[in-house]
């Protein structure tokens, strides 16, 4: 009986160390995103800036499409993904001097903000939404 308890204690200790390591990894990544770059602003500062500057440019249809597009992201990470994607869309809209967020800007920003490893899921989601991605093929490279 004591051997089983010993194994459970070792297993519990190993599990706690693994979970703390995973949590530490994600906290360290967030810390790195908060570090200022050469321009004095961090990646997160730029995301917040673009979100603030373009919040009035979003219409309900584009917000709904964005929500649909980020729906495959696990719920735990969805808010972070939504902010990152929306800020990239805002950055593109400002670069192109648009008055509002249109579907083409939204799709372009969505593709650019999505990591390359997730592009096959992105293509699948766009296909489900009947969105033609042929004009955006150059963005997948």
Number of helices: 6
Shape: elongated
Largest sheet: none
**Helix content bin:** 55-70%
Q: Structural class of the secondary elements? A: mainly alpha
Which series of helices and strands comes N to C? HHHHHH
Cα Rg: 20 Å
Number of strands: 0
Q: Return the domain count.
A: 2
Low-confidence stretches: none
Arithmetic mean of pLDDT: 88
The end-to-end distance, rounded to whole angstroms, is: 59 Å
Please give the oligomerization state of what you see.
Answer: single chain
Bin the strand percentage: under 5%
Offer a concise description of the structure.
This protein has 141 residues and is mostly helical. The protein has helices at residues 2-34, 43-54, 60-70, 75-95, 103-113, 119-128. It holds the Pfam family DUF2621.
Would you spell out the secondary-structure blueprint of this structure?
Layout: H1 2-34, H2 43-54, H3 60-70, H4 75-95, H5 103-113, H6 119-128
Helix pairs in contact: 2-4, 4-5
């Amino acid at each position: 009986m004591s051997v089983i308890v010993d194994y459970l204690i070792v297993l519990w200790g190993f599990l706690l160390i693994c979970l703390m390591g995973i949590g530490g990894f994600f906290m360290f990544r967030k810390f790195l995103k908060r570090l200022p770059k050469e321009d004095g602003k961090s990646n997160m500062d730029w995301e917040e800036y673009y979100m603030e500057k373009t919040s009035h440019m979003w219409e309900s249809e584009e917000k709904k499409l964005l929500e649909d597009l980020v729906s495959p992201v696990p719920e735990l990470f969805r808010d972070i993904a939504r902010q990152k994607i929306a800020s990239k869309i805002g950055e593109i809209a400002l670069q192109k001097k648009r008055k509002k967020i249109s579907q083409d800007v939204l799709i372009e920003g969505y593709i650019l903000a999505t990591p390359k490893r997730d592009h096959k899921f992105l293509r699948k989601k766009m296909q489900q939404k009947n969105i033609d991605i042929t004009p955006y093929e150059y963005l997948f490279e």
